[in-house]
Batch of 4 targets.
Target 1
Amino acid sequence: MTRPLVTDEKKNFQVPDTELMTPGNVACGGCGATLSMRLALKAMGEDTVTVIPACCWAVIDGAWPHSSLRIANLHTAFETTAAAACGVRAGLNAIGETDTTVMGWAGDGGTFDIGIQALSGAAERNEDFIYVCYDNEAYMNTGIQRSSATPYGAWTTTTPVKNFKERPKKNMMEIMAAHRIPYAATTTVAHPDDFLRKFRKAKEIRGTRFIHVLSPCPPGWKMPSHLSIEASRKAVDCKTFPVYEIEDGVRYTLNIEPKGIPVAEYLSMQGRFGHLTDEHLAAIQEQVDKDWERLMKRMEID
């Protein structure tokens, strides 16, 4: 097998001092979605409009006239992130504000599940906006219910220990790649150079751009809040969350080379997997290895 490409672009971006998200918001300690928004806005800049549906971030942002964001924002219905973003884009174009970036910002429930129809339609039309899924792997805002982003074996309030989730996580990146959109990428806040580069790259591309951000949720993952960054890093190093990008649906590039640690090292940090047996862990490891091999085949050089 030909070794996959790993980007060798310059690292150590200078992170802007400008803060477009206020301190003292109502997010939980260690919230991966909040850390992600703060870093994303540093890459996007002030000339950005966010579109946020019903989700944790609709609460974190706050109700008008108070907001934890220092940019324009539209709150919309759970299933309509992409549709609303298309409308904002059209309105801005109509008044000549073509340089303003429109960024949808939704959780996994609003992306993988209830919002996928609007997202698919917008992607098929190649609408000009960035769609960010902050993926905490369950419906966290409404009480930690299972979503199609919830991984195999995980506890949630609707998949309790004796009936844990027995289906694998939906592969949203492959779904977006099938739409042949200009750009799709995964990243985490544990890799800020990669994170900033991808958001800046997406900002310069026209058409539909999709960024999938792993966003640990300490309450939902049953882990201490100070472990969010470490959990993100281990998810990448054990290959459960590969960091890569897809251009035009066909060109795959691996951006972070995993260390190849056992999956159990990552899962053991989280109480939501505490009920799994050695046999379960072995099965998860086997599936992760198969998924990784499949991804590597897509990255072979012609």
Target 2
Amino acid sequence: MHNSGNIVAETAVRIFADLGDPQTVNQAKDAGWKVPLWNALNSAGLPLAWVPEQHAGSGGSLADGFEVLGVAGRYAASVPLAETMLAGWMLARSGLDAPAGAMTVAPSRPGDRITLDHDGTLSGRARSVPFARDAEHIAVLALRNDQPVVALVEGGECRISHGRSLAGDALDSVDFVGVSTVSVAPAPFDAGSLMLMGAVVRSVQIAGALGSVLDLSVSYANERIAFERPIAKFQAVQHSLARLAGEAAAAMTAATSAADAITEASAFDDGIFLEAASAKIRAAEAASEGAAIAHQVLGAIGFTQEHVLHCFTLRMLSWRDDFGNESQWAVELGNRIAARGADAFWPLIASR
């Protein structure tokens, strides 16, 4: 997933380094930094990377998009880039044009149900929708006569109840009460497939953030002097850093494998389910373990608002819950494996 020759990923790195540096963002007195960052991402066509040119997008590949998401994770970006990309993917898969501007997707939690009524309006409620209040449009997966459709609606038409994620990002409830659609089309995927795609998106972001958390922790351990030597020389700290490196590597491996599987697949089959569910479970576990280790290594300074560590750890921890948390995916994965029977288990694992 991290091909140094990927010009799309290199563009993303350049934009985030210039306009979304976590240290600069953390010290900013307001959110004024978001506009130039978003404008630069938009100018480069990154938010609509997964939308073909004939549907008003930039026509990037799935692989390009996952590269960009990894970069966004490494910079712990507090802008709706991933959400807009995912909304664009939904619209493109349904043959709908993508609007300009920030978007988000609903539902983003398993079990939420939105219906398209006979009069052409939506009804239902979506919980914990990332950046809902900041989105000009929301791409909604709804049911019409029990068949999935993708509907595009204006964010301002919905009743939005403000909430916050652990990291302080907008995480809102959205009520669709008689909301009219801008456009609507049958969806070639269901709610389960949307949750799987979203789970992989978040897994890739978590893996990216964990890479930065590891870099921060190693750098601090090499600079922090105790008893006249860097704390990185102490065996206990080395052990902690090795564990953190293991968690970061595990998350990256699982997320990359799932992203590659989706890139190469033609449908969300059992193989994709296994990859995506496993990635979200492993990345979420790594986020919990990795955050704890990093805060241990950095000690009290890592807990302060002044230090940048929390920008990564809190965002990683909040991403665990989007598009199904690890417990939900673990139960569903276990049920699905059990239903296939013992004889089918090894062939499924060995085929990945």
Target 3
Amino acid sequence: MKLSALIAAFAASCIAASAAAQYPNKPIRIINPFAAGGGGDIATRMVAQKIAETTGKTLIVENRTGAGGRVGYEAAARAVPDGYTIVASDTTYTMMPGLYGGYPWGNDLDLVPITILVQNPFLVVVSPALKINSLQELIAAAKARPGKLNYGSAGIGSVNHVSTELFKREAGIDLTHIPYKGMSDAISGMLTGSVDVLVVGVAVASPHINSAKMIPLAVAAPRRSALLSAVPGVVEAGLPGFMAGNWFAWSAPKGTPREAVDWLQREAAKALESPDLKERVMQQGAEASGISPEEFAAVVRNDLQRWTEVIRAARIRLE
């Protein structure tokens, strides 16, 4: 190689190293496909705010909702992969291939993992009218009357719908599905006596549990929730195969420099270790995470396989 070429290559490597060392040197945009005020929106904003406070860097959250998150995900997948555009994601991202026959924008690897911010386990609750007080009692009642009990969801293909289908499969029971236009409507259905069973977020159900309008049977996680310490986890309740919930995470366009991914994961993990954020996460019935990109990638792979199998078995399909 000529001396001029060697000098040019060395200069380019120095520039790249310098740019990586300075990251971030301009605002980071977080595309948020979730509605304002929801669990994913809250998790993203509180972590972004904490990172901004501790690093002095600027993180801008941009809500871009529509089509069950597809609008935001597609915008992120097509963004310049320079570390200055990332996207908030949740469990429904891993359900898309099963629901749509693949990711709508094409390449399954257009988004790469950064980290999971929080894990939000689901909870099985029933109407007090059923006079059921344990998960095994619910399973026995459903087996005695196949299809007679119903469950509500936030709509066909929603995370609650797919998760309840997993519950049905693991328990070996048949429940009739009543899809609503959102989870608040499904909850209203239970409160007014139209819905027998719900698989719902811990924090969402807690006020209704405290007022005895919902009976909690089990948290769909290995252990009890700090917010509902009297309610068993599904392992304790005798249904270890039913692990379900909603994680909220950050991902980046394919090709994003590893230095940027590592900085974002590291700062998010630090933010989630702060006592005030830990308390806020716990009050939502969730658990702080901050895992590595490799660990997050494993979660995505496992969830893709698991949810695709559930969706196919239940014959759920969206267009």
Target 4
Amino acid sequence: MKNIDTEPPESRVGAGIFGHPAIPYVAPFAAFILLLGVNRYVPVEPGYVYAIWFILIFGLLLTVSRPVIPFRISNYLGSALLGVAVFALWIAPDVLWPPYRQSWLFNNSLLGSPKSTLDPSLKSSLLFIVFRILNSVVNVPVLEELFWRGWLMRWLISTDFRKVPMGAYAAQSFWTVAVLFASEHGSYWDVGLVTGAIFNWWMVRTRSLADCIFCHAVTNGCLAVYVLSRDQWQYWL
């Protein structure tokens, strides 16, 4: 397998023009978290909110992050198959043991509940569904992989992360990112933890951020199909 991202991309494109080399990796994720926190308070129909949300984040990725986004995938088949496997892992506990997620471990005041907080009317909103899918499959895999595995995994090894090759392994960095990635997924922290570890492993294995982005996109795409075809909206909190 050809390792294509061993040399940090910012060393090739001069990402420092943005004022700090971390900005292309961090800015879209920070904007995403901010929008996630305030969108419920915006007095606009949710379909339009998600459309605006997609456009804003996509614009950041095209402008601020474009120099550090890799496009050369080294292992299409492996990344696609792993993405499908992670999707299966994500839904397996609920399919095999429906009462599983009602445990206090996944249903409490700190983590929330494994149920959708969306207005039921959105299930018939084409505008919402289209932009929810676009956010899940296009924006989220890129911004999350840039942040978690493109930046944080390296920054935890050295604050001068530009000197750390893509996919470099250090146990503390590997597991810290996996745990933080899990915490981002609320009531689904358990599968989030395993997913974080798998994506981290794939980054170490391939040394390719493009492969991780593609793998993540496949997982989210499969989950979107599952949500819509099986009416399992709890996965879209």
